[in-house]
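Please decode residue identities from the backbone states below.
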């Protein structure tokens, strides 16, 4: 594909604007990783099954491997790099460490972003609903029990307003 087929877009990721010229066939995951150099978003299956590439798009968890970068033009994107603030971990990051919800860590960014999206929208989500939603992401190390425990811990500690400002 020649440069004349590339598109100019602006992605706002973690509050920062990225003015980019991209091939329309590049996935959002590829654009985030290769062109914005934010490598916390992992690419796993590239078919939307594993959830490793989960980011928040206008507050909603999405699989960034299933969306083209050009489709995100002008949207607000949050990646795992945007969770920590001023050198302080986000409560979910702290809970993942405290409950040993990390094993190999490959799935962790996707789970953190999925959990952030869930708790910001439904801070009083039931255990059953939480388990159902978290089951959409895959952990090859079978760390689900501690992942669920970490998210429950944060849900039980803080409310919606604190999740958004954390």
């Amino acid at each position: 594909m020649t440069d004349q087929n590339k598109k100019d877009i602006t992605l706002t990721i973690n509050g920062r604007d990225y003015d980019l010229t991209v091939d329309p066939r590049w996935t959002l995951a590829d654009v985030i990783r290769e062109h914005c150099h934010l490598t916390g978003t992992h690419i796993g299956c590239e078919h939307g099954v594993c959830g490793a590439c989960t980011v928040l798009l206008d507050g909603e968890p999405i699989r960034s491997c299933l969306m083209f970068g050009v489709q995100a033009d002008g949207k607000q994107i949050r990646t795992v790099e945007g969770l920590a603030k001023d050198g302080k971990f986000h409560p979910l990051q702290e809970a993942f460490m405290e409950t040993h919800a990390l094993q190999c860590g490959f799935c962790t960014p996707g789970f953190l972003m999925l959990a952030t999206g869930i708790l910001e929208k439904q801070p009083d989500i039931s255990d059953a609903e939480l388990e159902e939603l978290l089951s959409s992401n895959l952990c090859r190390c079978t760390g689900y029990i501690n992942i669920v425990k970490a998210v429950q811990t944060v849900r039980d500690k803080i409310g919606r307003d604190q999740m958004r400002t954390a």
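Observation: The beta strands are 7-13, 16-22, 54-57, 60-63, 76-78.
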